[in-house]
Amino acid sequence: MSPQNPNQPLVRLRPFQREVFRDRETGVVVLHWSRQIGKSFVLAHWAVDRLLTRPGRLVTVLSNSRDNGAEFVRKCAEACQMLGVAFDEMDESPDIEYENMRMEVRITVGGRVGRIKVLAANPRTARGFSGDLILDEFAFHENSWAIWEAAEPILSSNPDYLCRIASTGNGKHNAFYTFCTGGLFKLSRVTRTDAHAQGVNIYDPRTREPIAPEEARRRSLDKAAYDQNYECAFRNENSALLTSELVSAAEDPDVGEMCEMDWTAVTLRRLRGCHFPLYGGYDVARRRDYSVLSIFEHIGTMMLCRAILRMEGMRLPEQQLRLDAVMMSVPKLRRVCIDMTGLGLGLFEYSQQRHGGRVDGVDFGRSVPVPDVIKAEGRQAKTVRVTEAMATELLRMYEQHRIRHPYDALLREDLLKPEKIVTPGGRVSIAAVRDEAGHADHFWSFALALEAMGAGGPLEYEPITGTAREETSRHFSSRRLDGLSGMGGFRTGRGRGWG
Fold first, then answer.
1. More confident residue, 458 or 105
2. CATH number of 15-190
3. Do 232 and 189 meet the contact criterion of CB atoms below 8 Å apart?
4. CA distances for 34 relative to 13, 17, 74, 227, angstroms
5. Which helix (H) or strand (E) is 42 found in, with range?
6. What is the pLDDT at residue 154?
7. Where are the alpha helices (DSSP H) in 84-174?
8. What SS3 class is residue 480?
9. d(CA 467, CA 464)
10. pLDDT interval class at 10 (50, 70, 90)
11. CATH fold of the domain at 239-475
């Protein structure tokens, strides 16, 4: 190693790392830290320090994957190299299976061999140590409570045995969430914002330019995932109505057009060229949220989003002109449902007067008879809020993979906002957290379009030939869609539970 400046420390740590590294007394410390701010780095140095200050010590590390285990060993080796300490690194795993992982770093001090042993995280390996314990990415350990139950008696047997538990969040249904929120142990919580203030840089994934935490969050596609990964929030996936997986499965970049503030000529031509019935959903806003008008083509059992118009801060008369443009020039647009709650009432009344029965209004504050899909869950109530009924039907479309829509960052973010909330008394509501990007406006526009389709009554037989058949075949050449084979005889059921 090159000579060190005696005035410079061998290892440079930021203040939040230094506090953890220097703590040689606290029995259990929980590190709830943002991703990519040096959790493994500081814990690897802490483990090496334990072997140097307590010759012959065993430090057991339970890791959630073989790759993460190997990375921890590498960081321990780097710590030894930085300190100028001789070490041996070995992999005694009998195969490449994660469950059989056995990696070690060995350091000899005063003739005594200390070991940092990296093992797969499970209750069996948690019973096999007698020394210090590191639970790395503990929120992602399977059977986290069983692992802790196996380890706790050993830690309790010797006051010199210390435990460090580190992870980013992974929902609320694991031991790590309880340890972070229950006040049981000393907690070190460091967000990306905290780390940035202490010199940890953030770079835009596309431009590679340095950016601030606020800008990084604004550019993220999934705000809830960002907050959990970087700002120490806990995401409850079980309460989310739509999951990221369902939304991703429905995204198709070629299925339709995204428009900002006004229809494009390309979009209007595309809508006028549709051969199957079209239905629209219009979530109305004026200042704080977006107004979103979505138009879907109904082909067989599928909803294909052909166009989305997103309007921000637009006066209602100008919004009315955008609605008129498609109502008057797109022959296949059968029906549009408008959110007539509050601000949308005037727009709905004027539009219905102008376009008649092709426009329906939905009052989000009213109740409706319980749909069959909710009855199947065992609900005893006779009515539900219309928002729950609409959201449940839209969820069913995603679960049955019967919906396609364009990819768009704001659209995806909105679709992930609604949550199903059940009160202690059993009352169910659908709620969406409001942020700077709105209040799930795209989600409710989709739900209203599905409502328009369900209220449309029976469709006459429309045989498809020539160009229409060829166009449809091209679009679905790589997918098998039930209900398309006959290319005719379509119907919708009146009211909910269509299709």
1. 105
2. 3.40.50.300
3. yes
4. 16, 12, 21, 9
5. helix 39-53
6. 93
7. 123-126, 144-156
8. coil
9. 9
10. low
11. Nucleotidyltransferase; domain 5 (3.30.420)
